[in-house]
């Protein structure tokens, strides 16, 4: 299970758009960071997604993707224009169709083809209508679901929630968050029925007596997934930060554990934002990302590892650097994630002194934040990347 948040310029301390997401997957499922450079494509070329092929476009854009290693698409990512997207599993009353596009495939395809958030919305709506969503999403488990998305850029953000080929869209004002439950009720701007011949954003008013969440959500599975519970945590966290929200605040909420009156905060619970796999809880936070969009700059922070409460958020930029893995480096990317996970597990289990580690981690993160704020040239940024990604 996962959680995604966004705050717009009106809500942040420095006038940035700040976006954050945890990716919760199976604990042994590698979650890798892959850079996919801008590329020209030949006429009639196809792109092989996780289960199906679709026509490729003439040019795809430079993207940094955060993805399960075995899936074509990504749980979250950002492109060279500052379009950033995160997706969530949602469980609906609509039946699951045959293998088609996964929500993660749509996310990647939209990032590769969009210069604005609204353009990405248009692409995802097209993919849903044309190809549908379907197929096994679980690493070893036969998990299948529909999807919701937050899609943002330097100036705007949208929430798009789906039930098979049906969807609801809401433009976000100030801030919002999503989790593993539908959150659009009767407050949508558009429904799929408003775009019969093609998508053009046009807020529909005065529609009554239709509640998207009430109509389509599978309440039993949504309750088990604790989506409403976790969304209330992230939404209320953002709500209290008007005009004060900083990148560090997103680190804090993505590391959050619910107080369950337990002596061990690492006990598994679907009510944790930073999720730990324990006993009956099969989900674990396998990767975490925060993106700051400000004054034309794209500042990315990522753990590159599981369990953000025990990981360091490290910066990334769209610059030339040898810290990136590319699709041809997939095996190396998986090995990197596994090494990091093993180290973090030792911290979690107390084999490495947790208090000392977290103290050193916090010191490094503070130093990185200070250096990122001052970095101007690509050379300065490369130096920071080397410090960040080559130390624990």
How would you describe the overall organization of this protein?
The chain has one domain: Penicillin V Acylase, Chain A. Helix content is 28%, strand content 24%. The chain contains 9 helices and 18 strands. The chain has an 8-stranded antiparallel β-sheet with strand order 3-8-9-10-11-12-13-15. Helix 1 (103-113) packs across helix 2. The protein is globular.
Assign the CATH architecture.
4-Layer Sandwich
Helix-strand makeup class: alpha+beta
The shape, in one word, is globular
What name does the CATH topology carry?
Answer: Penicillin V Acylase, Chain A
Low-confidence stretches: none
Quickly count the helices. Answer: 9
Radius of gyration: 20 Å
Oligomerization status of the protein chains: single chain
Q: Summarize model confidence as the mean pLDDT.
A: 93
> Into which percent range does the helicity of residues fall?
25-40%
Query: How would a textbook summarize the main sheet?
Result: 8 strands, antiparallel
Enumerate the strands of the largest sheet in spatial order, edge to edge or round the barrel. Answer: 3-8-9-10-11-12-13-15
H/E element sequence = EEEEEEEEEEHHEEEEEHHHHEEEHHH
Q: Looking at this structure, what is the CATH superfamily? A: Penicillin V Acylase, Chain A
Number of domains: 1
How far is it from the N-terminal to the C-terminal residue, by CA?
27 Å
Task: Give the strand content.
Answer: 15-25%
CATH class: Alpha Beta
- Give the tally of β-strands: 18
């Amino acid at each position: 299970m996962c959680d995604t948040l966004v705050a717009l310029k009106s809500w942040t301390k420095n006038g940035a758009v700040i976006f954050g997401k945890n990716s919760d997957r199976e604990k042994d499922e590698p979650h890798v960071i892959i850079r996919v450079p801008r590329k020209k494509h030949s006429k009639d070329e196809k792109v092989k997604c996780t289960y199906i092929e679709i026509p490729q476009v003439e040019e795809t854009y430079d993207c940094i993707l955060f993805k399960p290693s075995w899936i074509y698409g990504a749980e979250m990512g950002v492109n060279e224009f500052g379009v950033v997207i995160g997706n969530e599993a949602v469980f609906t009353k609509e039946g699951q169709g045959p293998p088609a596009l996964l929500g993660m495939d749509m996310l990647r395809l939209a990032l590769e083809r969009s210069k604005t958030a609204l353009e990405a919305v248009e692409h995802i709506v097209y993919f849903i209508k044309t190809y549908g969503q379907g197929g096994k999403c679980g690493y070893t488990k036969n998990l299948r679901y529909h999807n919701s998305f937050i899609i943002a850029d330097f100036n705007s953000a949208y929430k798009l929630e789906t039930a098979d080929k049906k969807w609801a869209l809401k433009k976000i004002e100030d801030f919002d968050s999503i989790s593993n439950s539908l959150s659009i009720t009767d407050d949508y701007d558009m429904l799929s029925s408003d775009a019969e011949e093609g998508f053009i954003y046009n807020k529909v008013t005065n529609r009554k007596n239709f509640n998207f969440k009430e109509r389509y959500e599978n309440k039993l599975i949504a309750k088990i997934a604790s989506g409403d519970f976790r969304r209330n945590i992230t939404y209320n966290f953002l709500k209290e930060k008007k005009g004060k929200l900083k990148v560090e605040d997103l680190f804090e909420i993505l590391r959050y554990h619910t107080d369950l009156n337990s002596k061990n905060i690492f006990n598994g619970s679907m009510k944790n934002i930073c999720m730990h796999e324990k006993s009956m809880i099969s989900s674990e936070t396998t990767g975490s990302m925060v993106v700051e969009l400000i004054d034309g700059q794209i500042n990315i922070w990522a753990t590159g590892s599981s369990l953000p409460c025990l990981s360091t958020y490290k910066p990334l930029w769209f610059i030339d650097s040898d810290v990136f893995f590319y699709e041809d480096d997939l095996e190396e990317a998986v090995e990197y994630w596994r090494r990091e996970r093993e180290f973090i597990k030792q911290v979690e289990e107390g084999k490495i002194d947790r208090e000392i580690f977290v103290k050193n981690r916090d010191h490094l993160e503070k130093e990185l934040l200070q250096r990122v704020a001052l970095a101007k040239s690509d050379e300065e940024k490369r130096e920071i990347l080397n410090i960040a990604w080559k130390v624990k």
